Amino acid sequence: MADLPVRRGSGGSLQRTREWDPFQRMQELMGLDPFDVMNQWFTGAGREGTLTFVPTFEVKETKDAFIFKADLPGVEEKDIEITLTGDRLTVSGKRESEKREESERFYTYERSYGSFSRAFTLPEGVNPDAVNAELKNGVLTLRVSKRPEVQPKRITVGSGTPEKKEQVKA
Description:
Layout: E1 6-8, E2 14-16, H1 22-30, H2 34-43, E3 57-61, E4 65-71, E5 80-85, E6 88-95, E7 114-121, E8 126-136, E9 139-146
Antiparallel strand pairs: 1-2, 3-4, 4-9, 5-6, 6-7, 8-9
């Protein structure tokens, strides 16, 4: 049976608090927020007081290409490097932190900065000579085309019997 916390209200009457929350209970017992700790593991917070910038990617396959989209707000084209070596696509770069003046007063500082690198293994059949990259409105779009021989071909369904041609008698 769950241990539900009970509080005495004014006049000595018993009042139940909201539903029992195991994460709230853990935080109370341990004095820390487990999600905050996990966030620090993934973002690198706590190391030199900065968060590491890790862009998010979306990868999809179409009939003739692989499309990669990455959210790179505040990253300039000159700070992005894209390489394709064999079947390995690597996107790396950096987002520079803004200069902070001593006289400025921050109430929160949550934006992350720094270098990043993401690598993807592509399946066989990509065309390394047909890769296009575009950075527009903070979104990097990469289009890695497939070779024509690996693109799907539409096959029409016929009657199943070959057509007979009449021979011309000479």
